[in-house]
């Protein structure tokens, strides 16, 4: 697999560290259902067969966290964007 | 049973030109309803159906398989069986499995080529030796055999291993002599044939596409071959567990990951037992045909692809050559991938779900094959009685929420590690 790093160009995935599902968000620790929300956040996953948005850290390159969209059926990578752009857009909403 | 396999039936058929053999199992049309449906015709699903019929006298059981028998993980593993576990929640379960393996061929009337050639975990430094001693003691406390071998004893077994490796010298190993290998296809076929002879319908090319429920729980499954009713449905779907469970609205503590395995060209006897390399993640055994069967770690990212990438191939081969330098010019014959249902603590789940009548058997990570008979035994018990089997009590689905994890890897619950 080659991951198209927005800073470094297409690089082999050996340069990256995988960090799993990029769609889970840390819940509020003070919410009324905090315990259940943290269980979901820590343990349960959609685990889709198909497009998966996931975090990769470019350890052997620019040290950017990326959100990569990849098809888990054939490892076809649709694109990669800096994670900060995804997470700051989430915070804004 | 149409044919009971024995030396006499073989001689008889030899004289008749082998024209009298019946198919090992039927190919029935699905009935409108069953007492029990097992989703997934892999080793665990077939074993579950067999023990439902044998231990619980269930006569109206169906196994639904989306592909063909033997096409999934039961034919994609490295055939190793062992019970050298550490945690109290695990040892009794895997030891039950080991005991069932020991009597399986007679029970199923099928030659599964069970070979108790031993499983040897090597250690390369003092702390690893301490860990092996601790594991061996835990095994002894549960009545499991384990034996600490010193360097010279290991050298006798593995003369070609690299004992003088500067970074990872072999100091000894923990041997379980009752462990070994089993021919995995024969396990699938043997369970399928034995279950079929007890009346279980094995329905292939039948993918579950929906799970119907009413106020009292499940009522049946939609499949590519029509609706099939049942009030007791067991899921044994390995890498596809999340997909099937999502049909009932369940979201599980499981990720699907890719594990590769490899076979070399045939060689003269080199590795007499199963050997694991303690300095990395590598294990190797030698098949009866002489091919070296080996594997290593997961590729490390979510996947349903059943094929891997090259960096992991390189890593596994590097570790193999570090352990056995003589392998450096051996040619690799085949490689393949399977999809592992990685649970978040590395241990399996055999439990009820939030939906009445729907049961879960999943989270086998990379250790599903050795568990096949005990998994079927315990899952059949759960399906038939609605109560967990004594040795599978720790395999609860809610343990992640309650903090009762079975942390066999010693690495803690870390969903992104798998």
Give the helix/strand layout:
The complex is a heterodimer of chains A (93) and B (418).
Chain A: E1 2-5, E2 9-12, E3 17-21, H1 34-42, E4 51-57, E5 65-71, E6 77-82, H2 83-92
Antiparallel strand pairs in A: 1-2, 3-4, 4-5, 5-6
Chain B: H1 7-15, E1 36-39, H2 43-56, E2 61-64, E3 80-81, H3 91-108, E4 119-123, H4 126-141, E5 147-150, H5 151-157, E6 172-176, E7 180-181, H6 184-197, E8 201-203, E9 208-214, E10 217-223, E11 226-229, E12 233-235, H7 241-246, E13 254-266, E14 274-277, E15 282-286, E16 291-302, H8 310-323, E17 332-343, E18 349-352, E19 358-362, H9 372-385, H10 399-402
Parallel strand pairs in B: 1-2, 1-12, 2-8, 4-14, 12-19
Antiparallel strand pairs in B: 3-7, 4-6, 5-6, 9-10, 10-11, 13-16, 13-17, 14-15, 15-16, 18-19
Helix pairs in contact in B: 2-6, 2-9, 3-9
The low-pLDDT segments of chain A are none
CATH class of the largest domain in chain B: Alpha Beta
Biggest sheet descriptor of chain A: 4 strands, antiparallel
Largest sheet of chain B, in brief, is: 8 strands, mixed
The CATH superfamily of chain A is identified as Folate-binding superfamily
Question: What's the number of helices of chain A?
Answer: 2
* Total tally of structural domains of chain B: 2
Distance, first to last CA of chain A: 33 Å
Query: At CATH's second level, what is the architecture of chain A?
Result: 2-Layer Sandwich
Helix percent band of chain A = 10-25%
CATH topology of the largest domain in chain B: FAD/NAD(P)-binding domain
Biggest interface, chains and residues, is:
A-B, 27 and 24 residues
- Broad shape of chain A: globular
Adjacency order of strands in the biggest sheet of chain A? 3-4-5-6
Oligomer: heterodimer
The strand order across the widest sheet of chain B is 5-6-4-14-15-16-13-17
